[in-house]
Give the backbone structure.
Amino acid sequence: MKKALIIVDVQNDFCEGGALAVPGANEIIPYINLLMEENDYEQIVLTQDWHPANHKSFASNNGRKVGESIILNGVPQFMWPDHCIEGTFGAEFHKDLNRDKVTHIVQKGKNTEIDAYSGFQDNNHFMKTGLDDFLKYHEIQLVEIVGLALDYCVKFTCLDAVANGFITCLHFNGTRAVNVKPDNGKDAIFEMLQKGVTVLG
């Protein structure tokens, strides 16, 4: 069975000192590096948040406060601080992440009008990133997923992987949650288990 590792958004803005730092984010990087070292993956894919500066998910572009919610093109949108703006240091992959074996990079969130948590498609399910086609072209059947953040981009990437027919495993030690609300991470795990994601210790 051919397998791929999908590493979600291990970027400076989501790590320690970043604009949208996920608590404990830096702790997962050695674990992810070890996975790549100790396993034979046919493909190793990085997803990368890559927002234009005027992206509508940013509170600053809507005259809102971080943490508020609006309806953006028909779906609820959490208001985030400016983060992962294309071409900036914050959007770059963290320097400690070993990229020697990476075979493919998927950029997401490039459309000003629609956010994209999942590595597969935007939040409105209008535009695909090409990740599904890439994995199927390479005859991948099983995907293992790690990265940031558990309760947003990792969760939606996992759910879309299942929906696209892949056997999907989440490495619990390779992810951390934003936890805007204290139980968000726990709730995300429960939702993924219900939808057929296998959670590996």
Observations:
- The chain has one domain: 3-50+97-178+187-199.
- The mean pLDDT is 97.
- Strands lie at 3-8, 43-49, 69-72, 75-78, 104-108, 142-148, 167-176, 198-200.
